[in-house]
């Protein structure tokens, strides 16, 4: 029976073993290069930088040239003019420039947050696939064990040592096991597809955690107030600053603007088209808004509403961060307890399986006892694997929830793989 189990496992995984193995860093490197979400965040960062230059442009010198060609009475009269304008006082344009810079800072922080999300998501889907693989192996072993039970029951019925009801019961167990195995195959296919969606290609065989790895004790639970440098909070604070500058820009719409203007015009002189005269002037241009149809007041109300919305969103983000830090710390701490408990249970299940197999050989244990022990041992080993995976993922998600997840953290986990 043991040979049948191993043959079933080897038949399934023989091609996978021969394939090259992927680890966390390899998959993250490819995900970073191919992930459309991160590419979108990067493009938005470039867009925000361009918006800063665009908002600054009205504060810089403006120079325009124009030329007019006329023909009257068979005589050409060409006129050329030049105008240079330099803003001197324009509070609205200056506030819009400050707002654009704050929005660019917010987008930089959003990009950093998106990079951390990708780091964590690669790890989460990596270990989800490892867990799905372990689950499938366990259920396949159970199915092979029930198949052996059916075979043994048929032999005993043929020899008159058992009733036909035993065969039906064994076949029922086998059918249930086959259904569970099929579900595990579908779960593995979905986990593989989820990782492929993130990376951009089908993953190879994944390197598992080292069997002798043990989790370290966690430090005290971090407090959310200690993470003012969290990229999501930085992005929110920058957005509030931008909203306040937009308010100032809207309020400045009531104020006059002043610019230094230098004009130069070259025109034909009198009735002598071959000769020209050049007139230049330097002056101050003062623009005073009087009636704007209520647009400035409406823009101010819009800016005030955006500021209030940004303040509320930052508070929502702050509370979510506090909750996530607590939840991930509890998950990491709880998984340590779970690992210790399941390690003891898995070791006991292995000892029990070895003892029951020895008892079968001398006739004190039945085949059913052996099959039950195989199931129990497989489930115990699966629970231990799930607890180990859960702890590693919780560590990374805890780092992400504090806003300090880096590639170095992923590289540290990568060293724990076989």
Describe the structure.
- The chain is of the alpha+beta class and 418 residues long.
- It has helices at 2-18, 24-34, 36-56, 91-158, 164-199, 231-251, 295-362, 367-401, 407-414; strands at residues 21-22, 62-72, 75-89, 205-206, 257-269, 272-287.
- The strands form two sheets. It has a four-stranded antiparallel β-sheet, with no helix packed on it.
- The chain is elongated, with a radius of gyration of 36 Å.
- The chain starts with a helix and ends with a helix.
Explain the layout of strands and helices.
Blueprint: H1 2-18, E1 21-22, H2 24-34, H3 36-56, E2 62-72, E3 75-89, H4 91-158, H5 164-199, E4 205-206, H6 231-251, E5 257-269, E6 272-287, H7 295-362, H8 367-401, H9 407-414
Parallel strand pairs: 1-4
Antiparallel strand pairs: 2-3, 3-5, 5-6
Helix pairs in contact: 1-4, 2-4, 3-4, 4-5, 4-6, 4-8, 6-7, 7-8
What's the short version?
68% of the residues lie in helices and 14% in strands. It has 418 residues and is α+β, with helices and mostly antiparallel strands.
């Amino acid at each position: 029976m043991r040979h049948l189990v191993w043959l079933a496992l080897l038949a399934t995984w023989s091609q996978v073993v021969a394939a090259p193995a992927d680890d966390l860093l390899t998959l993250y490197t490819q995900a970073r290069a191919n992930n459309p979400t991160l590419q979108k965040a990067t493009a938005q960062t470039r867009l925000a930088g361009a918006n800063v230059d665009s908002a600054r442009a009205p504060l810089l010198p403006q120079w325009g040239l124009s030329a007019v060609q006329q023909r009257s009475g068979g005589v050409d009269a060409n006129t050329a003019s030049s105008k240079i304008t330099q803003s001197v006082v324009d509070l609205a344009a200056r506030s819009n420039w400050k707002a654009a810079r704050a929005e660019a800072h917010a987008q930089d922080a959003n990009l950093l947050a998106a990079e951390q999300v990708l780091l964590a998501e690669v790890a989460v889907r990596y270990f989800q696939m490892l867990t799905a693989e372990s689950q499938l192996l366990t259920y396949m072993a159970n199915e092979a064990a029930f198949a052996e039970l059916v075979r043994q029951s048929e032999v005993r019925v043929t020899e008159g040592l058992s009733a036909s009801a035993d065969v039906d019961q064994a076949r029922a167990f086998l059918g249930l096991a086959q259904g569970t195995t099929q579900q595990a195959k579908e779960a593995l296919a979905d986990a593989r597809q989820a990782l492929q969606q993130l990376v951009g290609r089908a993953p190879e065989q994944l390197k598992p955690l080292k069997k002798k790895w043990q989790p370290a004790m966690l430090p005290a639970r971090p407090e959310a107030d200690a993470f003012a440098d969290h990229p999501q909070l930085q992005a929110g604070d920058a957005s509030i600053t931008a909203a306040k500058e937009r308010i100032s820009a809207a309020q400045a719409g009531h104020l006059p603007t002043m610019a230094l203007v230098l004009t130069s015009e070259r025109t034909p002189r009198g009735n002598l088209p071959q000769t020209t005269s050049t007139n230049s002037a330097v002056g101050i241009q003062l623009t005073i808004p009087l009636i704007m149809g209520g647009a400035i007041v409406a823009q101010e109300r819009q800016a005030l509403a955006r500021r209030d919305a940004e303040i509320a969103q930052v508070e929502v983000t702050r509370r979510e961060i506090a909750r996530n830090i607590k939840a991930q710390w509890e998950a990491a701490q709880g998984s340590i307890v779970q690992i210790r408990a399941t390690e003891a249970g898995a070791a006991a299940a292995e000892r029990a399986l070895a003892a029951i197999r020895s008892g079968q050989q001398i006739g004190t244990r039945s085949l059913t006892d052996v099959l039950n022990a195989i199931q129990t041992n497989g489930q115990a080993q699966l629970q231990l694997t799930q607890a180990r995976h859960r702890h590693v993922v919780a560590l990374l998600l805890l780092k992400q929830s504090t806003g300090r997840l880096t590639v170095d953290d992923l590289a540290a986990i990568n060293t724990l793989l076989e």
